[in-house]
Write a structure and sequence with these properties.
Length: about 475
């Protein structure tokens, strides 16, 4: 046994003493040895679960067996192979509702290509008017930010609620103030994430009911939340919930969903129609088409009918493990990670890590954004850190994570600095150009490193990452 293994065993023993509930998640270690054996076989540490989940071997085997043994055709017909595909699609729809504890009397599932597709569907079809307001938090994915363009095109007011350093949380008082702008009788949409994909902050789910009581429709982005947290739609009842299934269980990568309350789906007005979404259309009269009722009217073209069975398989995979078990495991590992990261010091006493967001597990998840710092307090280049991590078979993520609001606040980027990025029409507006301008202004490139935990994470993963981070002690830039 090597010295490193001995030190890791000692660290694990100490960890288990500090987080005894972790022992109750041992079934995941058994699962990893079978379903995710490729990780240890190849010596990989995967720390990008917020970017994309990992599939288990049993999921692939079950899907392969289904496709090998079955004969499936386009579901837009009534022949035996079409009906077989249609039945699998309806099984997947029912599995989604069951997993999220959503009553089929209250909610419908619209299958999309991904969470971004679900968000675009809401944005383009929501009945914004000049009397409407779109209230959105700084802390949001760009696909949520993008809805503002639909709102603006219809004359609606767009209002942002900022986050604040150092924790990157939303101020409840500012949320209440923003909700007060709703005009009686108008259609108003409030959008925020259950979990930040940048900082890991968990935003209050209570805001859903509070906003609805104030006359708002609520879009709750659950893409980052659902992989490691229980979203119970029998308790929390947002009007629109976008999801990407690959973030939850890795496979398939081309299927997402919009879970929508039936009455709120019915208020959406689609700007076009496509194959599969109509009951009847004619070329002999302008406007002669009739959209199908319910989810069918929003599912353009032919569904990914061979991929949808993999959704059912993936949800069953998560259910067999238990979301509460997954949550307990990643919470313990993240708590240990945060403590270790915040106590790393250079020999001169200077901190080695700067966390963006909460430094404890109070109202936060297992997604951690950070810098590695040199002894003089300067920042190690994040892309160089990513490269060096890759040499150790450690997958981390770098960049802005499609969340400009959190990134701009975390890096103290001013409105003037952002305006400069759009001020030269002859210069292509690219992320690299903007980062260069901001770095010239502040001396630090506005990029971040992010690690995140998920279904197959274990103590060895986080221990190896801390050892990697420790290797930067007293290293000059």
């Amino acid at each position: 046994m090597s010295l490193i293994e001995t030190e890791q065993d000692a660290a694990l023993k100490k960890f288990l003493g500090q987080f005894p509930a972790y022992r109750e998640t041992n079934r995941i270690d058994e699962l990893r040895a079978i379903d995710y054996a490729r990780l240890d076989k190849r010596g990989y540490v995967y720390l990008d679960y917020t970017g994309g989940g990992l599939y288990g071997q049993s999921q692939i085997d079950a899907h392969r067996d289904l496709l090998t043994e079955g004969i499936f055709g386009n579901p837009h017909s009534h022949n035996p192979t079409s009906m077989a595909s249609a039945n699998l699609a309806e099984q997947a729809r029912a599995a989604v509702l069951d997993f999220f504890r959503a009553s089929p009397d209250e909610y419908e599932v619209v299958f999309t290509g991904n969470a971004s597709g679900a968000l675009k569907l809401v944005g383009e079809a929501y009945p914004f008017t000049p009397e409407s307001c779109y209230l959105v938090s700084y802390d949001n994915h760009n696909s949520v930010n993008g809805i503002r363009e639909f709102a603006r095109s219809k004359g609606a007011q767009v209002t942002y609620v900022p986050v604040h350093n150092p924790d990157l949380r939303l101020d409840p008082d500012l949320i209440i103030r923003g909700l007060a702008c709703a005009k009686p009788g108008s259609d108003n949409l409030f959008a925020y994430p259950a979990q930040s994909n940048f900082s890991g902050v968990l935003h209050p789910l209570e805001w859903v009911a509070e906003a609805q009581a104030a006359g708002w429709d609520v879009l709750l982005d659950a893409a980052a939340f659902a992989p490691t947290n229980r979203l119970d739609l029998s308790v929390v009842k947002p009007d629109y919930v976008p999801l990407s299934f690959y973030k939850m269980f890795g496979y398939p990568t081309g299927t997402g969903a919009l879970i929508a309350r039936r009455e709120k789906l019915a208020k959406l007005r689609r700007p076009w129609f496509a194959g599969g979404t109509i009951t009847l259309a004619s070329v002999q009269g302008t406007g002669w088409h009739h959209l199908a009722a319910g989810a069918t009217g929003f599912e353009d073209g032919t569904l990914d009918y061979l991929g949808l069975p993999a959704v059912t398989i993936g949800l069953n995979h998560l259910s067999a493990i238990g979301m509460e078990t997954i949550h307990a495991r990643v919470a313990a590992l993240a708590a240990w990670l945060l403590r270790e990261m915040t106590t790393l010091r250079h020999r001169n006493g200077a901190p080695m890590v700067q966390i963006f967001g909460p430094e404890t597990m109070d109202r936060r998840a297992s997604t951690i954004a950070f810098y590695l710092l040199a002894p003089d307090g300067s920042v190690y280049d994040v892309y160089e850190v990513e490269r060096l991590a890759g040499l150790e078979n450690i997958s981390v993520r770098t960049g802005c994570f499609c969340n400009p609001g959190d990134g701009e606040v975390a890096h103290n980027i001013t409105q003037a600095e952002m305006a400069a990025c759009f001020a030269e029409p002859e210069v292509p507006v690219t992320l690299q150009h903007c980062q260069s301008l901001i770095q010239d202004s502040s001396g630090v490139a506005p990029n971040t490193i992010r690690i995140s935990l998920g279904i197959a994470s274990n103590f060895a993963d986080v221990y190896r990452f801390i050892e990697f981070a420790r290797s930067f002690r007293d290293r000059e830039r």
